[in-house]
């Protein structure tokens, strides 16, 4: 598969079809999580999504503006404590607290950002690491009523339960045993979705472009009239506000905040999520949050016997594994999971961008191998591979071993990609055959690929629907 | 309450000995910064591993304390050179993110491995300077000597003498050996040094080795003050050392030591003023750390290259 299986023009009908598949998967993921997972697993998913927002905040500064700010755990902490204090002491609603928390984070970001952004590179990393280290100790100060507000070393609980109001009980998963965590999940998804939308638009706006320009060439940006201090500080403040928002979500999710939750280690977790997801990409922030929480969950189950010592994953070892993963990613995949996924995607589907006048930037037809095409064959292989892997994965599920379990999990999900791709390529080749650009001999393979891929895709959709239906109605 | 100047020398002595330790760790940071222009955030954890090596050699295997310290320093020097060769050399130091990530990853690995092997309890490490040795006239066996009406601990004197000796040795190595000359050449200009035939890679490794050895020395000296060794022992020390290095200038070795000592003094006087005069003891560890943070911020704001550092000119 040296050349991509399908070449589509950006915005063309085929590209749109591929995007619909992606949207469908995303939507079904969002919908299935609260009905299929166990309540404690939904809780972990909530934590992952909260971390995603925090990582998005770090990404705004590190990924998009190229400033090494590593101390966002402190902003998260501020957001969480302000929320806890407002909700618990002042009897505010979480939704009322939200704008206040974001504003507090924003103002704090300006206060820290103004001096911090005058320094560059490693010096900024130094300051922000100090900031992350100092924060948990500040919470315990007795003066000015700080400890009373934050609960000091004991932490502060929020006694107000987040319960779905009666007019939201139709939301998937909200009614029934997992109600609490599922409703919190929907709250978090809502905030996350709006945040993502706003950040996407911000990055594409004029100030957002200025932020990117500063990352790419600071002096050049200044020459083009970008006001460096203002743009940097505002960007840092927005990021701090987002960090505080993540703190609010943390408080909403856990109902308890303590200084020990917002240490330097949390800041490092955010950086790890950022790097492993993909620096400077929005999808990377989401993936990073999921990665940090779920891989941490996996590493907890590992034990390594080493003669005299036994390294136990349910302790500090998980952190060591994270450190190792961080170093490995820095060496071998500096672009993170997003770049790995892109390189796989590029092998399957190539999207050619469109010029302003509406023609593709590269001639789509020039990618067409013509009579020599072996795409139909590859598509058929993919179409067969999907169900085979699915079966193998299903059989391996019965083996009680952590690594085999992970592999089986991955194998079962491979059909999500192979089926629609095989279908798409198969129908594409048949179209080319009709146009006379393929020999008659590929007809059987192509229709086979289309049929098998279509069946596989149908199976995936029906299975998801069935899963949703049974779980949704079985409440 | 007013100032009580009788107890001032107590705090000054204490601050000077703490400051000497911060200076040692700051020196470790600066040596690496001069060699490879990166801040090694794993400095503290490397030093902690060194202190644990001393713990294993001295407390568990029963070696003579100073011999174990020497062995630990040599081993951690090797470890530092190994890290430089395998993990940081492939990256361009001008691109800060990867090297910061590498050192953060090392930080996690060392901290967690030490925690897994030795768990997080504080383990007692014998104090190299507990009591005056018997050959000191009139003081043999005492823990301190009265100076200016205050107790000057033997520990403080020991730390100062050790640091002075180590600095003297470092000076000798850097100014009188070929490797030291190469190191100074590389830290002033890598490209020119390479052009005149200096083996830059080996020299950078040498810088890391020196730095790791110094860090280990600092960790061993600070252990008695913390009650012993534990995997998190260097967390706050590193922040003070960073503050010291930033204060003195990240590329000035004398500045690092001065900065560290200054931080120690400021911390001690702050303890006295805020802790005893204004608030009472309980809040001190909190405010000290915050003060170090504010100090870093102020220094970098008004003198980004520190008190003794050289200003870097940036070309586009």
Describe the structure.
The complex is a heterodimer of chains A (475) and B (316). Chain A has two domains: 1-36 and 372-475, no CATH class; 38-303 and 313-342, ABC transporter involved in vitamin B12 uptake, BtuC (Orthogonal Bundle). Helices cover 71% and strands 4% of the residues of chain A. Chain A contains 18 helices and six strands. Chain A has helices at residues 13-36, 39-65, 72-89, 94-116, 121-138, 146-150, 179-204, 206-216, 218-223, 228-254, 264-277, 282-299, 313-332, 336-348, 375-396, 402-413, 415-434, 443-473, and strands at residues 6-9, 156-157, 256-257, 303-306, 309-312, 349-352. In chain A, strands 1-6 form a two-stranded parallel sheet. In chain A, a hairpin with a 2-residue loop joins strand 4 (303-306) and strand 5. In chain A, helix 15 (375-396) packs antiparallel against helix 16 (402-413). The two termini of chain A are 47 Å apart. Chain B has one domain: ABC transporter involved in vitamin B12 uptake, BtuC (Orthogonal Bundle). Chain B has a two-stranded antiparallel sheet. In chain B, helix 1 (8-36) packs antiparallel against helix 8 (200-226) and helix 9 crosses helix 10. Chain B starts with 7 loop residues before the first helix and ends in a 14-residue tail after the last helix. The relative contact order of chain B is 0.19. The mean pLDDT of chain B is 81. Chains A and B meet through helix 5, helix 11, strand 5 and helix 13 of A and helix 4, helix 9 and helix 11 of B.
């Amino acid at each position: 598969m040296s050349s991509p299986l399908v070449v589509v023009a950006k915005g063309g009908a085929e590209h749109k079809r591929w995007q619909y598949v992606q949207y469908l998967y995303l939507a079904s993921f969002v919908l299935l999580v609260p009905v299929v997972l166990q309540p404690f697993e939904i809780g972990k998913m909530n934590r992952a999504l909260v971390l995603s927002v925090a990582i998005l905040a770090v990404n705004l500064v590190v990924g998009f503006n190229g400033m090494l700010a590593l101390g966002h755990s402190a902003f998260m902490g501020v957001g969480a404590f302000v929320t806890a204090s407002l909700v618990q002491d002042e009897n505010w609603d979480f939704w009322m607290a939200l704008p206040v928390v974001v504003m507090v984070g924003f103002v704090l970001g300006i206060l820290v950002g103004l001096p911090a952004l005058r320094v560059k590179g490693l010096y900024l990393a130094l300051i922000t690491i100090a900031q992350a280290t100092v924060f948990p100790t500040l919470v315990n100060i007795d003066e000015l009523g700080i400890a009373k507000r934050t609960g000091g070393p004991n932490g502060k609980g929020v006694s107000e339960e987040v319960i779905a109001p009666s007019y939201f009980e139709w939301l998937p998963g909200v009614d029934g045993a997992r109600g609490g965590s599922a409703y919190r999940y929907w709250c978090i998804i809502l905030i996350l979705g709006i945040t993502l939308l706003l950040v996407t638009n911000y990055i594409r706006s004029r100030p957002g472009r200025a932020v990117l320009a500063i990352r790419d060439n600071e002096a050049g940006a200044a020459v083009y009239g970008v006001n460096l201090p203002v743009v940097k500080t505002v960007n840092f403040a927005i990021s701090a506000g987002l960090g505080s928002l993540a703190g609010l979500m943390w408080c909403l999710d856990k109902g308890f905040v303590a200084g020990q939750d917002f240490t330097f280690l949390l800041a490092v977790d955010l950086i790890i999520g950022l790097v492993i997801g993909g620096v400077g990409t929005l999808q990377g922030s989401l993936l990073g949050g999921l990665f940090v929480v779920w891989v941490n969950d996996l590493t907890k189950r590992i034990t390594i016997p080493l003669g005299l010592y036994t390294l136990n994953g349910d302790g500090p070892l998980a952190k060591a594994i994270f450190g190792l993963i961080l170093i490995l990613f820095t060496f071998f995949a500096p672009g993170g999971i997003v770049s790995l996924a892109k390189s796989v995607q590029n092998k399957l589907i190539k999207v050619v961008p469109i010029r302003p006048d509406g023609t593709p930037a590269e001639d789509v037809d020039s990618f067409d191998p013509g009579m020599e095409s072996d795409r139909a064959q590859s598509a058929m292989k993919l179409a067969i591979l999907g169900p085979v892997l699915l079966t193998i994965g299903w059989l391996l599920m019965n083996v009680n071993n952590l690594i085999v379990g992970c592999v089986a999990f991955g194998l079962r999900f491979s059909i999500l990609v192979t089926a629609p791709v095989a279908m798409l390529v198969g129908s594409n080749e048949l179209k080319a055959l009709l146009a006379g650009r393929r020999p008659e001999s590929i007809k059987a393979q192509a229709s086979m690929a289309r049929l098998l891929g279509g069946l596989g895709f149908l199976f995936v959709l029906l299975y998801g629907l069935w899963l949703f239906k049974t779980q949704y109605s079985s409440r | 309450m007013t100032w009580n100047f009788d107890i001032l020398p107590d705090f000054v002595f204490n601050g000077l000995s703490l400051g000497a330790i911060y200076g040692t760790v700051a020196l470790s940071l600066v040596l690496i910064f001069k060699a490879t222009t990166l801040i090694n955030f794993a400095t503290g954890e490397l030093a902690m591993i060194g202190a644990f090596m001393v713990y294993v050699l001295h407390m568990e295997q029963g070696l003579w304390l100073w011999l174990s310290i020497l062995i630990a320093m040599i081993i951690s020097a090797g470890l530092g050179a190994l890290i430089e060769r395998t993990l940081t050399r492939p990256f361009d130091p001008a691109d800060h993110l990867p090297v910061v990530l590498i050192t953060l990853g090392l930080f996690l690995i060392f901290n967690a491995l030490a925690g897994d092997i030795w768990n997080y309890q504080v383990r007692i490490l014998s104090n190299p300077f507990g009591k005056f040795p018997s050959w000191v006239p009139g003081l043999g066996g005492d823990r301190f000597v009265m100076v200016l009406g205050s107790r000057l601990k033997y520990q403080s004197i020991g730390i100062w003498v050790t640091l002075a000796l180590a600095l003297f040795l470092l000076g000798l190595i850097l100014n009188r050996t070929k490797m030291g000359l190469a190191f100074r050449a590389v830290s002033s200009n890598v490209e020119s040094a390479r052009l005149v035939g200096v083996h830059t890679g080996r020299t950078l490794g040498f810088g890391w080795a020196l730095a790791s050895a110094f860090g280990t020395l600092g960790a061993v000296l600070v252990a008695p003050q913390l009650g012993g060794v534990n995997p998190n022992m260097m967390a706050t020390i590193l922040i003070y050392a960073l503050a010291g290095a930033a204060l003195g200038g990240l590329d000035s070795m004398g500045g690092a030591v001065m900065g560290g000592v200054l931080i120690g003094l400021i911390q001690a006087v702050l303890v006295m003023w805020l802790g005893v005069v204004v608030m009472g003891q309980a809040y001190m560890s909190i405010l000290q750390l915050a003060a170090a943070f504010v100090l870093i911020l102020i220094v970098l704001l008004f003198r980004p290259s520190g008190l003794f550092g050289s200003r870097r000119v940036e070309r586009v």
